[in-house]
Amino acid sequence: MDVEPVATDVASASTSERRERSGLVGLLSDYLTLTKPPIISLLLVTAIGGMFLASRHMGGSGIPDLLTMLLVCVGGSLGAGGANAINHYMDQDIDSLMSRTAKRPVPGHRVRPLAALAFGIGLNVAAFAVLAYWVNLLAAGLTLAATLFYVLVYTGWLKRSTPHNIVIGGAAGSIPPVVGWVAVAGTFDLPALYLFTIIFFWTPPHFWALSLLIQGDYERAGIPMLPVVAGTEKTVGSIFVYSLVLVALTLVFAATGAVGLLYLGAAAFLGTAFVWAAWRLRQDISRRKARNLYLYSLLYLALLFGAMMADGVYRWWV
């Protein structure tokens, strides 16, 4: 019996199967990319921070109910991922012009534009259903509002029309901790407003630092980010001013009684480092200093909200 053709057929089938599997894995990876997981992870940290604070505010241990926390994380991930997928669809024209984004799934022609749009809408429908049914309607409504503001106001209008795009558009990214708060407390209270405002003022220096690194991309795409329209020096000056306001807000937050001394100490330490990084950038405008500030801003927000969580648990424990 001649087994060579059979062996060849088996080998070909195996190769074909590997390619098919690779194609499926690649497609799933592209759909995951549409949701922008790194952004979601940071948003979830802020949402969980809001839940810890609300738990303490309601007289609890400072640790929210684990099932509620899981549901908020699932609903928040679906909502944020859906908003990001719709953003991929709406920004496909300018993404194709920028080196940083040209290989994204939609401009890279690996995911059809309408498929990305349908995927994003579907995720948001699922997010609303999860939060409305298992958490509360206010949390679901705020999550949907964040998506609508992000895709319609920021992506569809502000981003392409004004250098103040990220200042106003940052409101969408400021909602997750409020969602976390209302998921536990059921109402919108003063500490929730502080959480919103902290992220609102964190967003411009964070994003402007990134804009300095990819200014050429924005120029090619015709996006009026602040460095493109106002120049590097004015952008760096604005970063420093917003950094001062941000740190002041984080310190004043302690006066509400929602957080204690552990948080205050962490906010002072982290904020001093933030202002110092912004000041160093102002003194020496360079890509290295801009990158340092951008990367630190990510760490800063995560550690600040981590300090909020630790503070609530600590105050209950002692």
From TrEMBL:
Q: Which residues form the signal peptide?
A: none
Specify where it is mainly localized: membrane
Q: In which pathway does it act?
A: Porphyrin-containing compound metabolism; heme O biosynthesis; heme O from protoheme: step 1/1
A single Pfam family it belongs to is UbiA
**Which topology term describes how it sits in the membrane?**
Multi-pass membrane protein
Q: Does the keyword rRNA processing apply?
A: no
Q: What UniProt keywords are attached to this protein's entry? A: Cell membrane, Heme biosynthesis, Membrane, Transferase, Transmembrane, Transmembrane helix
Q: Which residues cross the membrane?
A: 37-54, 66-90, 111-131, 137-154, 166-186, 192-214, 235-255, 261-281, 293-317
| MF terms (GO), sorted A to Z | protoheme IX farnesyltransferase activity
InterPro entries documented for this protein = Protohaem_IX_farnesylTrfase (IPR006369), UbiA_prenyltransferase (IPR000537), UbiA_sf (IPR044878)
Q: Which NCBIfam families match?
A: cyoE_ctaB, PRK04375.1-2
Q: Which PANTHER family match?
A: 4-HYDROXYBENZOATE SOLANESYLTRANSFERASE (PTHR43448:SF7), PROTOHEME IX FARNESYLTRANSFERASE, MITOCHONDRIAL (PTHR43448)
Q: Per its record, how is this protein called by name? A: Protoheme IX farnesyltransferase
